[in-house]
Amino acid sequence: MEPKNSKIFKKEIIQAVSAYCESEKIEDIDHFMYLCFKQGFDIKKYGLLGDNSEKIIEVPVEKIVTKIEYVRNENIENELEEKILKLETEMSKKNEELDELRRNLDIILDKPPVEIVKEVEKIVEVIKEVEKPNDNMSMLQETLLSLRKELHTKNERIKELEKINRDLENISSQKGAVFLRGSNLNNRI
Questions:
Q1: Structurally, how many domains does the chain consist of?
Q2: Entry pTM
Q3: pLDDT in tens, 79-99
Q4: Which residues of the chain have pLDDT under 70?
Q5: Exposed/middle/buried for 14, CB within 10 Å: 0-12, 13-18, 19+?
Q6: How many of the other CB atoms lie within 10 Å of CB of 185?
Q7: What is the DSSP string of 36-96?
Q8: Chain-centroid distance, C-alpha 86
Q9: Owning domain of residue 94
Q10: Residue 1 pLDDT
Q11: Which of 109, 130, 159 is the last residue in one of the domains?
């Protein structure tokens, strides 16, 4: 099977490959030829693995550049320096005041304790005797109070019973039954 216009499959080359396959004891000559062709093509396309020749491949690379600029504002810097100096002087004044207070406290604590005498006035309460109410009057008030409580509880009990009575009347009132047309209950009445 010799393709047209093919230099690979000429008789001389096929005979050389056949002779090589016989000497190397290769049985599948067609497969061997295919592999040789494929390896040659791959070498041509991709190059040899151990080859030192360099291939230049252009790869597009995107770079993101971030630039940070610091802007100095001398007016703000001067104002901040003045504020810092002012705060430092105030702190030093406060430190001096604290030192003075500590010294005074040490002096006061070093002094011996002094006894303080307080005079206490005694207040005497005068208790007035109040006339005791009549015993009969207090007994009447207690009786009235207990009767009012009893009356109140009985009124609540009456209201509860009336409610129960109304509920029972509503349940026991005669209501007619409604029967469906398809039921056989209409015939029994």
A1: 3
A2: 0.26
A3: 888 998 998 888 888 888 888
A4: 1-8, 49-55, 113-134, 172-179, 185-189
A5: middle
A6: 9
A7: HHHHHHHHHHH--TT-----------------------HHHHHHHHHHHHHHHHHHHHHHH
A8: 44
A9: 72-109
A10: 46
A11: 109
